[in-house]
Design brief:
single chain, alpha+beta, 4-stranded mixed beta sheet, 6 strands
Length: 106
């Protein structure tokens, strides 16, 4: 049976921690995440022996601090930075863009 109300929250299960998390509506669909209307999110209970965590129960989304934004920007820059090329093996001689490796029969 489907609910006719608009989704307002996203539910995810963290099986490794026996935890159910209900948080603000996700921006994109993720495997294992389920969108819920306000009524169903408020009434949901966790399975026996599991913990239920509710994030952002206020009406407004959590604000990002300047430190949060700087940390995100640093992570994006680090991920985009080209990785240095691996150094040639110790027994190889380099000539510009070519690499000469010792004769395999030696």
């Amino acid at each position: 049976m489907n609910c006719a109300s608009s989704a307002a929250w996203t539910l995810t299960y963290v099986h490794a921690d026996a935890c159910v998390v209900i948080g603000p509506l996700a921006m994109r669909a993720e495997p294992g995440a389920h969108d819920l209307c306000r009524r169903h999110a408020e009434r949901l209970t966790a399975p026996q022996g599991w913990q239920l965590i509710r994030l952002g129960t206020g009406e407004e989304p959590p604000e990002r601090s300047r430190d949060d934004l700087l940390a995100i920007a640093d992570a994006v820059r680090e991920a985009a930075r080209p990785k240095p090329a691996a150094a040639p093996p110790a027994d190889a001689r380099t000539h510009g863009h070519l690499r000469v490796v010792g004769d395999p029969e030696e």
